[in-house]
Every structure is written in structure tokens, then in C-alpha cells.
Amino acid sequence: MKAVKYVFAGLLMMGLSAPVMAQSYESALETVSKALKADPTGLASAKATVKDYTKNFKKDPAAMVALGNTYLAVKNYPKAVECADLALKKNKNFGDAYVLKGDIEALKDDGGEAAMWYQQAMSLDPKNPDGYMRYANVYRKRSPQESERVLNELRKNIPDYPVEAESAHIFYTSGQYDKAMEYFNKSNPEKLTEGRLGEYALAALSNENFDKGLEISKIAIRRFPSNHGFIRLALLNANSGKNYGEAVEFAKKLVASGADVNAGDYSYYGQALAGNGQFAEAIEQYNKAYSMDAENVKVLQLISEAYTGMGDEDKALEYAQQYMDKNPTPKVSEYNKLATIYIAKVKKGEDPQGNFAKAMAVYDKVAEKVPAAGTWAKFQKGYQAYAAELDDEALNQYLPLITELENKGNLDEDETNYLKTAYRSVGYIYWSSKKDLTSATPFFQKLYNLDPNDKLAKQALGIEDTPAATE
């Protein structure tokens, strides 16, 4: 029942198992909560604070359950049980006390015992939705039919309760965003609370359902215009979904909204502008981001990419090198971006020999720093030489790689693709550039053996497509 424990741990961290706090004990409970964090036993430094709280509110079942949840948050299960029992002495039908007992068992990994207490809550306090929701969660995987039966009973007893939205919330708080989306999609976003709309948009973002995230963010902006966080969510979803035109508009709204705009906001604004082809404006926003947070060196890489988009490889190299110098653990993809800037200069005819050598040196460094990426680096050296139309260099890089991969055998999918590309490129160089079909043929034959559908191999080998059979 570890999944049960995980779901309820997230739920309790959000403070959802406690009943709505009455103002009479809310402030006092905050003091108790701080004391118990320092003294989870409640017998040392927190003793006097807990004693005063209990003395003042022991006749209030809700206050006792709230105290029990505070004990539960610091994993003092016996004291949490005591609080639940005190609440039940005052009101034996108080559903939140039974829910608390169930939550205790859930966090102790006893799903069966937890379900028993939740069932008690449903039976004795049928207008309290928490018992139904907890019980349904216990049975969601063990018996979906039983879970659905209880949720239908909840709908019958409390018709206005947002079952789908609250189910989604439980999955959201436990990080199960795919399941959260499943239930959010069954709800009516026009009726969701402000908090649930935020969770919906974030779940969509986390689940890479960017169109839905943008749609929900727009609804939230319309319904809660004073909450600038929804503009930020719209920007994030639009950017992630490559809807850069809209992303730019949301970024402008966010900056003009009066919200506390941070470095991340300016960075996302820059990414929206860059995606929209507005590279100079993007650099302006990136510089604002970097001036606010110089620790975020990733912005230097983004500035480099913007200069690349503008065709200014010299500035792109300047910022890419700054980023690599300040980043102790650059990714392989980031090395690749640096190398491709040198290759762009090669293609422009700017010191082709020197810049090509610098690109190759970058891939050599990848092989040295990240041995697992060694084969990839060797492939990139051939690939980039071929892309730059440096045929002899491409042969110099590809031919040793072909020998290495042929000797290795048992290639994975990536290695097989490297080999196919190398065969195709080497064959094409011999056939087209060097007018040497004899030298090209063995490479095209090997390519055809790996991929009988490769059109270039079939053309070079004179293999015609077999016409489809007709009746």
C-alpha cells in the first residue's frame, strides 16, 4: 500500500486532511504547529503550548482534529490518535475525526485499516466528502469498481461537490500529473476554484499538454484577472508549445501588469521573442534577466543562441564560451551548440580550416569528458564535415567509425542509425563527388542490407521498386 501512503503524504502536506479551521483556534494552532516542529513529542519545549491549546479548545471537535493533524504532520501517530478520540468523545458522528484515524493508518501503510475508518466517516457523517474521497483513493487501483461506486454515492449525497476536480487535486499533489489531467479534463473549468485552475494549468505544463495548459490559463486569466500568476502560466505553456506569437503578447501583459517580474520572467520573454524571430529584442530581455540574477548562467547560452539566429557567429561564440567557462558541468548538447557555431563559420567561408579544427576539438573534448558519448562525438565529426561539404574530411572521420561499428556488432538503435548515415554519406561522396561508383557500391550494398527501403542505396545499386500486385 505504498501508493496509498504516497498519495496521502502529499495530501497532508497541503493541509487538506484538516477540517476548515474556525477563526477561534486558527491562530493558536499556528503557534502549536511551530512548537511541535521543534519538539514532535509535545513533551518538552512544546508541552506548555499544547497544554494551553488543549485546555482552551478540548470541547471543540474540529479544534482537536486540527491538533491531531498537526501531530500527524510530525509523525507523532499516538498523539494524533488521542486527538481523534477526544473529538469523538464530544461528537461520535464527527466525520473528520474518523478521516484523521484513516489518514494515520494510510501513512503507516495499512490501507485496509485506513479504508475501515474512512467507511466509518461515510456512514456516520454522510455529508462530509472527505471520507468518500479517501476511501475511493484506497480502492482506485485495487478495485476501480468499488472506487467508482463510492464516488457515485458521494455525488448522490452531495450533488454539488466537485468530485472530478478534487480527485484531480489529490493526484496533482502526489505528482501524478497524467492522472490529474484525466480527472481535470472531466471537470468544468468554468466552475473550478482559482487554486484548482492553477493546478490544472500546471499539470498540463508538466504533462507536456501545452495547448490544454494555454487554454486553461486563458480561462483563468478571464475569471481571475487580478491573479498575475495565470499570465505567467499562459506564457510558459505558450512558449513550451512553440506558440511564440501568443507567448510574446502574454509576456508583454505580465511586464505591464504591475506584478513582481523576476529574472525568470524576462528569460521566458526573451525565449518567446527569439522563437518569434525577434532576436535583437530577445537579447535585450535576456540581458535584463542576467542583470537581475547573474547566477543563472544559462541566460548566456540563450544570448548565444539569439546571436546565432541573427547570423552573428562571433558574438554567438563570445557568449557560448562565457557560458561554458561558467558552467562546471555543460551538457553534451551544449558542446554541440558550440561546435555548430564554428561549423556555421566554415560554411560562410570564414577561415574554414581553422574553424573546422576548432569544431573537431570540441567533439574531442566531449569524448574525453563524457566517454559514454564517445561514439556520438565521432559520428558528429563526420556528420559536420559532410554538412560543410568537406568531403575528404568527412571520409577521414566516417571510415574509422564504420570500421569500429562493424567490428562491434550488437549495435543499439542510435549506433545503427550512425552506421546507416555513415554508409549513405560515404557512398554518396564516392558516387557523386568523386565519380567512383566502384568504391561507392560496397557502402550502398551494406546500407541496403541494413535498410532495404533506402531510396539512395536502391538507386545506386540499380534496384527497382517491385510494383504492387493487382487483382
Name the shape in a single word: elongated
CATH superfamily of the domain at 1-161: Tetratricopeptide repeat domain
CATH class bucket of the domain at 1-161: Mainly Alpha
Query: Unreliable segments (pLDDT under 50, ≥5 consecutive)?
Result: 3-23
Rounded radius of gyration (Å): 31 Å
In helices, the fraction of residues equals: over 70%
Average pLDDT metric: 92
User: Given the structure, what is the number of helices?
Assistant: 26
Proportion in β-strands: under 5%
**What string, H for helix and E for strand, traces the elements in order?**
HHHHHHHHHHHHHHHHHHHHHHHHHH
Q: What is the CATH third-level topology name of the domain at 1-161?
A: Serine Threonine Protein Phosphatase 5, Tetratricopeptide repeat
Summarize the structure in words:
- This protein is an all-alpha fold.
- The chain is built from 26 helices and no strands.
- Helix 11 packs across helix 12 (194-206).
- The radius of gyration is 31 Å and the shape is elongated.
- Mean pLDDT is 92; it is low at 3-23.
